[in-house]
Structure prediction request, 131 residues.
Amino acid sequence: MSVVYEMGLFRLDPEAKVMTRAGMPAPLGARACAVLATLVERPNEYVSKTHIMDTAWPGLLVEEGNLTVQISAIRRALGEVAGGERWIETLARRGYRFVGPVTRLQDLRPHGSASAHQPARTPDIVHRARA
Prediction:
């Protein structure tokens, strides 16, 4: 069973490392998808830079600037919807927090199943955007 996250008009499939907007591919690379997945898995919680980098670049030593570049790319992509660029808060010198709307969707099809065109999904509301 895989997990997909819905964030407003966006859907993030961490396993496939793809984000879509209204069903169309969003301009976000695989590494940025990994960074975003790390944040949306823990909505509205502080996530340290170290944890994000360890998750998005497993087993690799990377410069902190790489994370900054990916966060900028994510903000640009999310900025395609009003206020989306503010869904990621920076916690100075420590990390980031995702504060946008997040719904966790469970794909109930067995992996590798090609019998259905659309997966059966059950939503699990994780976090709603702050007013």
About this structure: Residues 30 and 109 are 23 Å apart (CA to CA).
